[in-house]
Amino acid sequence: MSKPAAMKTIDVRDAVGSVLCHDITRIVPGQSKGPVFRKGHVVREEDIPVLLEVGKEHLFVFEPQPGMVHENEAAARIAAVTAGANILLSEPKEGRINFSAACDGLLRVDVAALSRINSLGEITLATLHSLQRVDKGRDVAGTRVVPLLIDDEKLRALEGMVGSPVVEVLPLRRFQVGMVTTGSEVFYGRIQDGFGPVLRKKFAGLGSSVMGQTLTSDDVEMTASAIAAFLQQGADMVVVTGGMSVDPDDRTPAAIRAAGAEVVSYGAPVYPGAMFLLAYARTPKGRVPVLGLPGCVMYHKASIFDLLVPRLLAGLDVTAEDVAVLGHGGFCSACPECRYPVCPFGK
């Protein structure tokens, strides 16, 4: 526990640098009543006339104690060691500093480090869920200490245990995406393709663009050739739509393998999106993700696409384990009015 802080009464003219023990209220008859200074405020020279105007000749203040740190300074020190790339910090307000996104991107939180910090006691750091897309300017975290004055030793313990950013925003890269749309019904013109317009809009919303779309039948070799052609053209990602079910005519997974891509995960614990496939192809520009997208991506506003594609655009290497853990929070509650992207799947 923090050392108790002593209180004393001092003349308001001698109060500069002192910490208020209680709120100071200003009353304007018939107009307003409210605090002009909050408990914990550090009195400044320009505050003295205001305090005298509200009738405060004397103040109750905390007497400085060696080794004790005011809540505003404490929050600043916590923020300094926990905030990473593309994070803006607010000014302290009532002991709290907010973290906001400096750009559109993917929020990444070191959850294990966050838990260790909050286990120290008297120090709090709260964040949004990790690995969700956030817009520039959105508040993503906040920090403050519980007491008005906290022991410096506790802050130094935190500073010594944090070796890398705890909260950061990863900007999304601008990908050129190749799209292969499978299905004989579309290839032969029996029905109109519905995937293309949806995916072009989704990728545009993420700052990327579709470099081209190729229609193929259910023939494995034809689809594999179309995938390979986009890889040879330098695509940063290839998405293959349709043909992801277990129907004998659905050959997309086989075509992705035939194109030379290594399948990392086929199937995801996400509804909608269970028939999703993630693979990587080795090309001169590196490992390029090749995705098999189920039909739900075309019909649902938020799906497996919206949970995983931003991670790939942020440059993260998504693994089979990353897909597996999506089961916690991977059930869409099908709200009457979808709140994506603020709340994909209730996250």
Describe the protein's architecture and organization:
Belongs to the MoeA family. Pathway: Cofactor biosynthesis; molybdopterin biosynthesis. Keywords: Magnesium, Metal-binding, Molybdenum, Molybdenum cofactor biosynthesis, Transferase. The protein has helices spanning 48-53, 71-82, 111-118, 152-161, 184-187, 195-205, 220-232, 252-258, 296-299, 304-313, 320-324, and strands at residues 6-11, 19-20, 24-28, 32-37, 58-63, 68-70, 87-89, 97-101, 105-109, 123-127, 132-134, 139-145, 149-151, 167-171, 176-181, 209-215, 237-241, 262-266, 277-283, 286-293. It is of the alpha+beta class and 347 residues long. The chain has 3 domains: 7-62, Molybdopterin biosynthesis moea protein, domain 2 (Alpha-Beta Complex), CATH 3.90.105.10; 68-171, Pyrimidine nucleoside phosphorylase-like, C-terminal domain (Aldehyde Oxidoreductase, domain 3, Alpha-Beta Complex); 176-327, Molybdenum Cofactor Biosythetic Enzyme, Chain A (3-Layer(aba) Sandwich), CATH 3.40.980. Strand 3 and strand 4 (32-37) form a beta hairpin. Helix 2 (71-82) packs parallel to helix 4 and helix 7 packs across helix 8 (252-258). The protein starts with 5 loop residues before the first strand and ends in a 23-residue tail after the last helix. The mean pLDDT is 89.
